[in-house]
Amino acid sequence: QVGLELCPFRVLPLFWFHLQDSVPWQRVQVGGVIAAGLSFGVRGRSSMDSLTTNDEQGLSGAAVAEDGSASYPSPFGDEAAGGDVVVKSHREFFQEAEEVRAALQRVIDPGLETRACREACERVGAVWSQYQEQPGLLDPFMEELVSPLIGAISSAVHQSPRSPVSALPNLHLLSSLLYILTTVRGYKTVTRFFSHEAADLEPCLAAAEAEAEAVAQHTEVWSTLYCLTLWLGMVLLTPFDLESIDSGGAKGLSSRIFDLGLAGLRSTSRTRDASAWMLAKYFTRPDVTVAGCLQSFLKWTRDAWTDGDGSTVGLLGFVRCGAMQAWNQALKSAPRAVLKHVWVQLLDLAIRGPGGQGDWDFKASSALRKLRIAVACRAGLVALPPRLAPWRYERGARSLLVNFSKATGISTGQMFISESAGGGVSAFDPPARAGRVADKDTTPGEEAGVEEDEGGEDVPEQVEDVIELLLASLSDSDTVVRWAAAKGVGRITNRLPRDFGDQVLESLLDRCFTFRETDKAWHGGCLALAELTRRGLLLPDRLSTVVPLVCQALHFEQVCGNHAVGQHVRDAACYVCWAFARAYAPEVLEPHVPQIASALIQVAVFDREINCRRAAAAAVQEHVGRQGTFPNGIDVVTVADYWTLSARRPAYLVVAPQLAALGGGTYRLDLINHLVDRKLAHQDVQIRILAGQALAKLAAGASGDVAMHLNGTVLPKLLAKALVSEGAASANGSAGPSAAGLGLAAGTVQSRHGAVLGVAALTEVLQDQVSADNQASIRNLVPSLEKIRAYRGRGGEVVRQAACTLLGHVAAASSWTFKEATSTRYLQTIEECARHSSDAIQVAAADALRTLAAKRFKAELVAKCIDNYLAGLRKPDETIAARRGFVLCLGALPASALGDRGSEVIAALAREIKGQELPCKDQDDPQTRQYAVLSLGRVCLDLPAHGEDLAAVVAALEAAMGDYATDRRGDVGSWVREVALEIIAALLEAQQAGLAGPRLPDCTATTRLVALLLQQAVEKIDRLRERAFGLLRRLLLGCSSRGDGEGGEGLRRPSPAHCVELAYRRVCHGESYRPESGDGEAEGQASCSSAAAEGAIAWPPEAHERLAAALRSARGLEIEEPEAVGFAEADMVAEDQLKADRSAAVFDALVPLLDCEAYRPAIALGLVVSMGGITEYTAKGAKRALLQYLQDASAPELEARRREICAEMLRIFGHVSVRDSDTEGKRLIAPLFATVGILLAQDCFPAATAPELLQKALAASKASRDITRLRASIAVFIGLLRWPGTVRRQAMSVMLQFLGYSFPTVRQATAQAMYIRLLEEGGDFDLTGGEGTPAAVVPAEKLGSVLELITVTPWGTDNEEVLATALREVYEKLGLELPTAGRSLLAPKKPREEKPKKENEYADLVRENHY
């Protein structure tokens, strides 16, 4: 194949090893040769050489998705076609050959039982399916794979043609297995190994007819008919006349085969494909042609287009497809002598339609239209001379090594490579395949003679109709039709004279490449250009016209509503560029290389879609490898490869700057201009944001020429785009492609937003390099935007956000002149944005205010800001959104500017965090509290807070850590706790390092804050648990949560203030906790030691050595933030298992700290929440760690541990309200019941605590109607049955009340628990109360009857009579008194008081009339 001949890696070891580490070559085993492959997106092949595949098409088909990418010929050549080779499934050989051989020998045994045969066939089919992407590996074994199966089928057919199943019971299983092999390797390869003797014809036909009758009744056995039809097609290749083989009968063999094929064309399964192929072989026979079967089939085709053949409406579409498939296969297989009598009629059939309605006949489906194109094209080829166009361009043989030698200067003489005038030719290439270079090897006179001869040739008029159909189909709505039309254009043009071929190209360019056409026409046009290029039909003198159009297609995008289309056009344009590299000699393409290189590089790094970026990179690599004329080619393919371009953000912000720096900035200006002209006006807001960031990266460190270009061209253009209105743009015609130089989207919100972002980005990086005129325009840009009301309308919010960003960058430009009036004017914009309902706008306003206040504001202006924000927080009618903005802005003010107002600001923020003393109860908002915690952290770490201020800060942080508010969004209080974790950790690090700032009074306060971190580190929410654990490790071990070196020696971490900024950017900007540049680059790094620094009076916390040892014990497991877990770990371990391992590591490390009295309440409370949670791996991890703690110790220590834990459980019972309406009680009591139930089941509760536990459990469940709480309490009361006496009797009374409860789920859970518990009693059951009460021992016989009664009673029923009868019997057998109160079914019901009837009111009238 050409891809292998032009890439002879057998003799190019130097080239291979030089590039394999820098270029994303994917290796595949093809015919024993390691070939390098480039990728046009990820296009795997679902099947190879399917029955609908054309001979000249190396792929199984194009993508069906309209805006997706078509599948194009692989750079490996035809044999390796099918898209990318997935490296992770790469195989070197047929690994399971021996296993498959043995299995095939088993399944062909007629005596093998069906079940064993099915299992073996499923195993073999699964093995074959693994080679779907590398089916060539099966070729050496193909005869061994096919022969046993077809041999067994053949034997059965010969033994009993009408009923082969009787001879081979597993016939259908073997046929299904053979069908799987055809889908993996392709029917053409598989059928070569079918037997095709004349003696097989009649038995095969008889068996196929019998199976056709069976399929009509049992459609699941169609695979047998499919295989028999393929076999029949191979047998038809026998050279004997059918009449000489015919044994006689009512109908001749020819008629029977024809009828069988026609019946198969009506099938809805793959049998239709096999029948089409079989009929094509049938029509190639001379005796069939003489009999006139083609004319009969032509008449049948016309009848099949209506219901003339008896087909139902539902099957009509399949019949039509079958007819066209058969003609397509026949045109591929039949000789020209046979087709010359019918090609005119076939063209009429394809162009005018079988029904005579033209396009309407083929409108039903894309499959029909695709087959129409194929039939018309192949029929047209019959009308043209059977030779390729002599005028086509032929580059001749060429070698990658020669281009590499020219580019690098490395000699290639040692590798047996010689150079010729037309390019490098390998010494190992056969001379016959070397070809010729038409432009070099012919004289002008000879060329003129050829053209003169061509001019005398006549092309039939019908061919013009075919070309018209093909060109029109390039704009079809379906990709597969356009792809078929493009191939047809290439095939037809390859047979035309030069003048006619040039007309075809001209018409193609006029039809498809105009701005009036849709994306479909551009896509089809690109596919057709690529086909013409691959066949040498696009002559070099046409490149000057075609290359600019292709470059436009590389950037094609049409906005349709709220989305844009054009991805498939850009992908196809990359295919054209790839074809350029393979088709032309370097000296031919060299004049166009700068234009192609610039466009491809822009697409490779800046395209929105991953497949387009990768396709452009593949085209670049092809040019570098085959042309050798790309500027800095090797460096480009080293930087921009298949993997580095896979993620959009790195492509914009990492790869693009690296490419811009190559060769002294060869691509820098082109990349900048592309961003300015296209990406900053993109439909996708995320692309515009990335484009602004990339523009800043490209402009950073720019040379004088680039700075001059930015000042003279880019900034004026962006400023003009930002201020032009949509109406003015339309009036001036600037919405067109080149209107006023403003680009394609001038005057739209997208264009304005991108322009403001671009100005902000350039202002940030250029600063002093911005000219004075541009400085003045940029300073006035935001007021000018407000003057033209640019924020109004749909999408105006993003412009407002970009304007705030610009204000911050202008204020940060210290060398720019800045008047006080400008600061006042900017402050108005910021305050307006701070009140906006959008979080992003509020954050942008706060960021701008922080820069302005620090660099430009005077003290009076800062005081004004504080007064306005504090007054806004006190207003009872202020909106929640405005309050959020005010809180953010208070934290944005620098501490140095607050002065004496710091205490007032801290007090206001503390009130917001606690949610107390709010002007209106409706202003309670979790996001406001979250922002308040962030602002408090930013303020307090810079202010020397002492006394009451520091106490207010600590109290506010403790309140934030206790925020467990919930609403319909879930645990919204976790937003507040997550931020409070960061602030507390930063505050503690400041104490540890002895830094200037807030100083806690003593170690007690520090211990209290560490306890809060520990509580979150053992609670149920994964992200809080892992973050708290990571902060504790950083605080006490001086390392991150990633398990850095022991002890943290030599590590540096960011300062506390920088940690707060990281938390701010995490919450407000969605960034990671870990800074990109590494923790060690922040200013004022803190020490990594857990020891107290000099002057640190509040450090260390209590038992800090024990705490550090516990944290260090988890170093063996990698504890990562959830978003940091990569694909490699997810591939090796299930995601849930990975989370479970991290969760278990945290619990195992921290639960032993229950020994520390200072941390025991916090850890116990967190464990209660985790053990009673609904997340399975969290509950299991917490349970295992706690039980291990309570069981792994010496006897005295074990008793003390259990006593302490039980005391903590009882303490939690006492501190939580038992009312259902209480938020804290609702959160804690059910998990507390579950935890205590587990401890009772493990015999971890001392008997002395049982009475107190019973009373507290009764109090928590007595008045509750919370089903979750009631069901959780069952385990506690069941556990209390352990101790005889009053506790057991009261617990049993409660359980019986639950057994008669009004909630069915409670009754069922109680019955199940009671049955299990009573079943454990081996003898009598003592229910005697306390001292002085009569004995009440239930004999074992009665206890057994109670168990039986519990078992047979349907406790989930609504029949109260059945339940009451069973309950009374249980009470009687256990000797307990019936309940006199409570919610049991047996308790007396209180009489309902009749409410006095109200007089009809107006509200009743409204409700009755449904107003």
Question: What this model shows, in words?
Answer:
- The protein is mainly α and 1411 residues long.
- It has 67 helices and eight strands.
- The protein has a two-stranded antiparallel ribbon with strand order 1-2. Strands 3-4 form a two-stranded antiparallel ribbon.
- A hairpin with a 2-residue loop joins strand 5 (558-560) and strand 6 (563-565).
- Helix 34 (668-677) runs antiparallel to helix 35 (685-699).
Question: How large a portion of the residues is in β-strands, by DSSP E?
Answer: under 5%
Could you say which overall geometry the principal axes of the C-alpha atoms support?
flat
- Oligomeric state of the chains in view: single chain
The order of strands across the largest sheet is 1-2
User: Based on helices, strands and strand pairing, what is the structural class?
Assistant: mainly alpha
Euclidean distance between termini CA atoms: 79 Å
What is the tally of helical segments? Answer: 67
Q: How many E-type strands?
A: 8
How is the biggest beta sheet arranged? 2 strands, antiparallel
Which regions have little confidence, pLDDT < 50, spanning 5+ residues? 1-89, 412-456, 730-743, 1040-1051, 1075-1090, 1118-1133
Helical residues, percent: 55-70%
- Average pLDDT rating: 80
Radius of gyration: 41 Å
